[in-house]
Amino acid sequence: MNKIISFFAIALLIGAGTAQAQVLMKEMLTQEQKGTLEKSVNWPGKKIYYTLKYDSSRAYSYETYSTTRYYYTLMIADNAGMANAIKLPGMVRDLVITSYFEFYFNNGSETKTFTLTYDKNNKWYRIKFAPQWGCRREELWKRVNDIKSYSDLLTSMVGQMDNNLILDCYRGHEGRIMTQ
């Protein structure tokens, strides 16, 4: 009997040591998140500062399930004070296995939806976005694996936005976007 208990205790310790912590927890969805990136493509020689500001949440129901939608403003700037920041309204749908981050990019003539799909179990994300003509840079939306924290996820996402988009295309147009 002692051998069985010892075996299970060792197996439990090994399992606990190799388990990965959850990256995105519900309480994080209502907190403001901030971060920086070292080398900007849009502002050469400068850092990028971003803030994901929580705005509100609303219950959402469809047929047999209910969930909450979280609404945000993503602000991206080349200065820590966020003066003259590019503001992008967004929403997160946090489901059981997957979280969807949607940001709405308006260039003054049309709005397009940027979607990041995050797989909670396997800790990877992928971006789907076809930016407006004239606002594109490279469009190399890479799948990113082994996300270790919520901060890593957001910093990587903003980094891909910086690399693939001409962010000034979207400055000042956030008032034209309807988020419902």
Describe this structure in words.
The chain is of the alpha+beta class and 180 residues long. It has one domain (22-176). The protein contains two helices and seven strands. It has helices at residues 2-18, 150-164; strands at 33-37, 48-62, 65-77, 86-94, 98-106, 111-119, 124-128. The chain has a seven-stranded antiparallel β-sheet. A hairpin with a 4-residue loop joins β5 and β6. Mean pLDDT is 85; it is low at 7-20.
Kindly report the spatial arrangement of strands forming the biggest sheet.
1-2-3-4-5-6-7
- Rounded to an integer in angstroms, the radius of gyration calculated over CA atoms is 19 Å
Poorly predicted parts: 7-20
* Mean pLDDT over the full residue set: 85
Going by helix content, strand content and strand pairing, the class is alpha+beta
Helical percent range? 10-25%
Percent in strands: 35-45%
Overall strand count? 7
Order of helices and strands: HEEEEEEEH
Count of domain modules:
1
User: Helix tally?
Assistant: 2
Write the layout of secondary structure elements.
Blueprint lengths: L1 H17 L14 E5 L10 E15 L2 E13 L8 E9 L3 E9 L4 E9 L4 E5 L21 H15 L16
Antiparallel strand pairs: 1-2, 2-3, 3-4, 4-5, 5-6, 6-7
Describe this structure in a few short sentences.
The chain has 180 residues and is of the alpha+beta class. It is 18% helix and 36% strand.
Descriptors:
2 helices, 180 residues, 18% helix, seven-stranded antiparallel beta sheet, alpha+beta
